[in-house]
Amino acid sequence: TPSAPTLTHAPQYIGFSDIDDLGKHQWRTFVLKDEQHNLLIWVGERDDVRSDLVNRIVRHTVLPNLIGSLLLMAAIWLAIGWGLKPLANLAAILRGRHPGSLEPLQLAPLPSELEPMQAALNRLLGQIQDVLSRERRFIADAAHEMRTPLAVLRVHAQNVLEAHNEAQRRESLNYLIVGVDRTTRLVNQLLTIARLEPNAGLPNTTRT
């Protein structure tokens, strides 16, 4: 062809090789030998043409794909950030809460996908609040129930100290032992009540 290189010698190797066009251009060639017809088929392409083709491919294919990929990644990052913003807000609210605060969470607007999580957290907070309320109520009731038995034990102990003879002392000790046994039963009742169902309250216990 008219654009074929002016060569001082043909390529000597079958396959790919690099040749010089009398110092004008570098060529990348490929030689295939046809044994049946005893022919050498030689094709080549100038390096500058190849470089221009590669540059065009990069400009029209690689660069647009690269820019498109970067834009897509940025869009995905923004979408994920927007979608996770309610979770970040929830984390900030929880971090800023007082340790004793058990008020329900109110996040608005909230995506429908996160509403079950908020409801579950509010149920958990409500359960914790119920447990703490029951514990406070139990402690108050237990203190009220124990006040009279402890006062009676104190009276019996005081009688032991003030006994005038051995008979009075033994009698006061017997009352003291009986009072201790009754108080022990009352404590056991209170402990049993503490293990009952959450909504169970303290029954009317017999005071000593």
Automatic annotation (TrEMBL):
Leader sequence segment: none
SUPFAM superfamilies: Homodimeric domain of signal transducing histidine kinase
InterPro entries for the chain: HisK_dim/P_dom, HisK_dim/P_sf, TCS_sensor_his_kinase
Superkingdom of origin organism: Eukaryota
Entry-linked CDD domains: HisKA
UniProt KW keywords: ATP-binding, Kinase, Membrane, Nucleotide-binding, Phosphoprotein, Transferase, Transmembrane, Transmembrane helix, Two-component regulatory system
Molecular function as annotated in GO: ATP binding; phosphorelay sensor kinase activity
EC number: 2.7.13.3
Matching Gene3D superfamilies: 1.10.287.130
Catalytic activity reported: ATP + protein L-histidine = ADP + protein N-phospho-L-histidine
Span of domain Signal transduction histidine kinase dimerisation/phosphoacceptor: 134-199
GO cellular component, one term: plasma membrane
Location in the cell: Membrane
Pfam families, A to Z: HisKA
Topological relation to the membrane, as annotated: Multi-pass membrane protein
TM spans (from-to): 62-84
Name of this chain's protein: histidine kinase
